[in-house]
């Protein structure tokens, strides 16, 4: 049966949301549709139609991402994908992803990104896991920040939700500029997030649970009284046999530097009656573990892939990033099975950027576009791809050159969903 793939219009948005979330088993009501409309760029919302019926969805939006070296690059986010039961297993998602990736390349993007519920499903499109997040718990009794890390120039205080909303976008942008994370969000992203939190809802849009505690907002200020960090958290009050077992859930911690991060953690850990802190969405190498006197009280519960990257224009993407510590030139061959392409590029340092030229020289390194997408931000370990034969190289010296190219000081971290 022929299908039509096109942008949806405003009158079709309700069907768009129902199709997307029904495919994931999520009940949809009018309030949820209004909530999703506030968070959706409708000019990037697409539907796949069987005759006049929407049977599948996919959505796109443009954001900015900081790549190694600090350059801000447009990233086309792909998400909101869903195929209704009864239409699954027919290649509809592949059809939509192919058209979306081809459209991104025609529009001049070099990078696409998404989050995924299934690894194999999206690796076949040439994407790879590029950033990771970890979940930690803090056994709070007798856990304290090392005294020499605390600054007398920083103060923390609680503020109202509306004040926090006015601060958070600018703080997020400064966080990217200082290298604390690599994607900043505008106010239009935070408004529906704050609305959900203030209504006692989960940050997970697939969850229908309500009745969660109201959030608290804590700002960190420097000696000139300028905001330099913000923590958003909830406290779950629990008592057993007259003793407090209350728990704190950290929802967001945004800061312009490590000192502000530590100052906010110090305040959260000194709140009265808190037995345990839960940090569900933090960098893999969480600074708190090394900032406390007893690192074993910071327990890493899980680590998972977060944002997947898909390079759609190899030359353009490589030209945007830092050369790291690369010395000399390196010929890289990239195989893109999805687009049935093989590209060969000679890369060499050109100041703080890479010089990238097509070449017919024999390759020093061969890899597929999924592997390149994974290591592009230096979030995935290059050695893992070499050990599993996803990357081949002509000599150990050439592998060392490749490793020096993808070296970064800080792991890439994105603190919001897509």
Which features characterize this protein?
about 425 residues; alpha+beta; 7-stranded mixed beta sheet; 12 helices; 21 strands; about 35% strand
Spatially, the strands of the biggest sheet line up as 1-2-3-4-5-16-6
- Sheet of most strands: 7 strands, mixed
Q: What structural class do helix, strand and pairing data support? A: alpha+beta
The total count of helices amounts to: 12
Mean pLDDT: 93
The counted number of beta strands is 21
The end-to-end span amounts to: 32 Å
List the helices and strands and how they pair.
Layout: E1 4-7, H1 13-22, H2 30-39, E2 45-50, E3 53-66, E4 72-83, H3 92-106, E5 111-114, H4 119-123, E6 128-129, E7 132-139, E8 155-159, H5 161-177, H6 187-198, E9 216-221, E10 227-236, E11 239-240, E12 243-244, E13 246-255, H7 258-269, E14 274-282, H8 288-291, E15 298-305, E16 308-311, H9 314-320, E17 330-336, E18 341-350, E19 353-358, E20 365-368, H10 369-375, H11 382-387, E21 391-393, H12 396-405
Parallel strand pairs: 4-5, 13-14, 17-20
Antiparallel strand pairs: 1-2, 2-3, 3-4, 5-16, 6-16, 7-14, 7-15, 8-9, 9-10, 10-13, 11-12, 17-18, 18-19, 20-21
